[in-house]
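anyone else get weird line breaks when pasting these?? whatever heres mine. first is seq + tokens for prot A
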Amino acid sequence: MPDSSLPKYQIVFLHLAFWAFVLALPFLQQPSPMPPGTPEVPIVQMFTITQFFAIFAFINIPFFYLNSEILIPKILQKKGIWAYFLTAIVLVLGAFFFNSLIREYFFPNQFFPRTGSTFQLLFFLAVSASYRILSNNLKNEKEKKEQETEKLKSELSFLRSQISPHFIFNVLNSIVSLSRRKPEKVEPVVVKLSDLMRYMLYESDDTKVTIERETQYLSAYIELQQLRFGDDIEINFHDNHLDESQSIEPMLLIPFVENAFKHGVGMILNPIINIDLHTENNRLIFEVKNKVNRQFKEVKDSASGIGLANVKRRLELLYPDNHQLTIKDENDFYVIKLVIG
């Protein structure tokens, strides 16, 4: 009767059902009536319903719970096996003595085999011990999973908290650069940035968002970059054949796009960034390609790579066996492909 994860009313119901079944066993196993004319066989003993319930209910049921609720948690688990063994012997002898008293004073003319009573006590001692140990194991396993879940939530929360400052840092750098080159476009960029920050502040705390909402966020970010670079860079974003009802962890895809704009622009002839997002056979497929300059060795700052390392860890936590991330160089392009599902 393991019950560590069930509501209390279900626990009570299961215990009542268990004891009702056990109490009904002797009556369910009664032999079928003898055919008419069969010679009567002398019966050595006959249990009445009152006698059976009195002996069983007032001895075996309390015996079961004394062992499972007191002896095991308070003696076995705290004082060790030998203390429990000695206490269990005392409990068995006490139950056996009480059983004898009930027989002698309430049913003096009935014969009850002592071996059967002893077997019952030992049987329920073993059953109650097994029940408590199994229940404790299930409870410990549940607590362990809850701790792991809380740890996972805390780590994901921390990783999410890193995304926003990292993103804002990159965008502010973009605005500074834009103010020098194209100051007239700073205002629309700031307006677009406010839309992005609204999503980051009020929607990214959700466990999941629809792929449609995440796509809108990606589109807004790409539009912001288009305002910044204008015709200096070719940007292609395709989001066809999407299952818009599919859900995803918020801000999971943006680090790949950020990375493409950070490393795919500057010191590159005719820079190109291609972004493709679609669903296929219930799988989400996201690919980002940016042109690179093989002859120029980029000097990375201390914050470089935070976004990618962050998203890799989030993928490991959220989709441990349900994603594929490949990062490779293809000719003059740096290619990142993510498949979820």
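and prot B, same format (seq, then tokens)
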Amino acid sequence: MSEHEQPGVPEIFTNRGLRPLPPEELEARILTFLASRRLCVLSTCRNNIPRSTPIPFRSKGFTLFMAGEPGQKLGNIKVNPNVSIGLFDPKSEFSENIHDITGLQIRGRGRLLRKDDPGFMEAFRLFGRPEAWAEHWFGMMIEVVAERIELLAMGLKLEGYAARQIWTPPGS
């Protein structure tokens, strides 16, 4: 029995695994996870009233883009650009294996892009829709540049790393 093990308790619960991933490995894992997902939960807030919205997204590096139809989330971002984004690996939802639990929590600032704003068409193209559609679309692109990303991956404990890893942009 290792120093962390307790009779009848799986080691995943007792092994704290405190080692951080090397920064380049953490970045690679985060970018791979972002590229493999298409739906996130965007959380906004106004007057201390939070709102969480499931919404399709695309990413370019550590920046996420969402196509926002007019609604409360856009109004919230206008008055409070601080946002949080949650993503998880759906295989963990029905898995009995705790090692499958994987997700990201992203904190950043939301910026709304109108059709005539620089970067709008580049973001629109990430969704793979015909450019002609943008002309008739009445929504806005939501751009979120990540300021902090928490990767929770219980399987990292099997590799001797902490299950929770923190990424911040270089120089922050």
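btw re prot B: The beta strands are 39-46, 49-60, 63-68, 82-88, 102-113, 140-153, 164-167. The chain has five helices and seven strands.
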